[in-house]
Amino acid sequence: xxxxxxxxxxxxxxxxxxxxxxxxxxxxxxxxxxxxxxxxxxxxxxxxxxxxxxxxxxxxxxxxxxxxxxxxxxxxxxxxxxxxxxxxxxxxxxxxxxxxxxxxxxxxxxxxxxxxxxxxxxxxxxxxxxxxxxxxxxxxxxxxxxxxxxxxxxxxxxxxxxxxxxxxxxxxxxxxxxxxxxxxxxxxxxxxxxxxxxxxxxxxxxxxxxxxxxxxxxxxxxxxxxxxxxxxxxxxxxxxxxxxxxxxxxxxxxxxxxxxxxxxxxxxxxxxxxxxxxxxxxxxxxxxxxxxxxxxxxxxxxxxxxxxxxxxxxxxxxxxxxxxxxxxxxxxxxxxxxxxxxxxxxxxxxxxxxxxxxxxxxxxxxxxxxxxxxxxxxxxxxxxxxxxxxxxxxxxxxxxxxxxxxxxxxxxxx
Length: 414
Ligand SMILES: Cc1ncc(COP(=O)(O)O)c(C=O)c1O
Ligand SMILES: N[C@@H](CCCC[NH3+])C(=O)O
Prior knowledge:
Layout: H1 18-25, E1 29-33, H2 34-47, E2 53-58, H3 65-74, E3 77-80, H4 83-91, E4 99-101, H5 108-117, E5 121-124, H6 127-140, E6 144-151, E7 173-174, H7 178-187, E8 191-197, H8 208-226, E9 233-235, H9 252-263, E10 269-272, H10 276-279, E11 283-294, E12 299-303, H11 312-316, E13 322-324, E14 333-338, E15 347-354, E16 361-364, E17 385-390, E18 393-398
Parallel strand pairs: 1-17, 2-3, 2-10, 3-4, 4-5, 5-6, 6-7, 6-8, 8-9, 9-10, 12-14
Antiparallel strand pairs: 1-11, 11-12, 11-16, 13-16, 14-15, 17-18
Helix pairs in contact: 2-3, 2-9, 5-6, 8-9
The protein binds pyridoxal-5'-phosphate and lysine (LYS).
């Protein structure tokens, strides 16, 4: 049995034809491969070998309970950015002491709930956040373990919306200001300083920005050690890219090897927070062609999935491969694959050379990360179903929303 991989070389879990999945579960529909998710998680875990480490899946990439529970059973940790993600991880059976809480805007109630649950560490993104965590922890008579997320001013060379490590970005604490904040943290009685955290962006296709950032982080760790502030772990964030079309990102092995070479004999636990590299090429979005609409300038294939289901093309101009479930003979035409939403930006792909007919089933590849999690009810469209394929079986891990769900919690004016 073979499935997908980072390079997206295989499309579907072979044991079940996607046509059957579409019949059973309807379209649009997200389909995930259990074997691929597991293989990708193990690839990171194995890559770090005997070095003490924790792979914390970035929940924002895919927060389906089926996906999270599968990873929890492998022993995965989780990187969360909200109390909503925390509750999902706990509901999926994730271990609290393997949860890392990132994000620039943690609310007091979120901090309280995370402390109550017993998470492993807060990645602190500003001095006022540090003070808030200390206050909440003092109020609860707990000690909060923290890392400071530093901003090393390194260009991830990714899309500007998903680059996070430049000094003009809102993320992290300027690495030059970080020492003073560490000194403050070390002096707070309800704070335990454990690590340094750094995440410079997503969909990185080269190693050098990661290594530049690591150099800055290691230099900071050395300066802190001189001041008596011992660092136990380095959290290097997520960000390793995947192949959507023709990218050739490094594999986890190569990444880990380069990290290890830099780390040498240092006694530091490594935490990684991969999201996309685990889930991206473990999922596809199935959609059906509703209408073909050739016009004098463009051929539009109107499909039943839209920007509310998969936002990446509209938001970032992202290109994801789109392939028909059944290949038709004939001369390909350039088709714009568009959804029913009332926006010109509602497209899944542009000028794709395909032979199409009304009713055809298409798969948008590499949709397992930042697909469903970024979906919305725009145009009052119900969210798609999510299905997990496991060998020759498939089960629904989230049903398609019913129309009544869309207004169940609203009320008319009295
Ligand atoms: C703090 C943090 N950790 C981890 C991730 C996961 O990133 P990726 O899906 O690129 O691995 C992100 C998103 O970029 C993030 O902001
Ligand atoms: N949503 C983005 C990635 C954001 C990463 C979150 N820090 C994408 O689809 O590429």
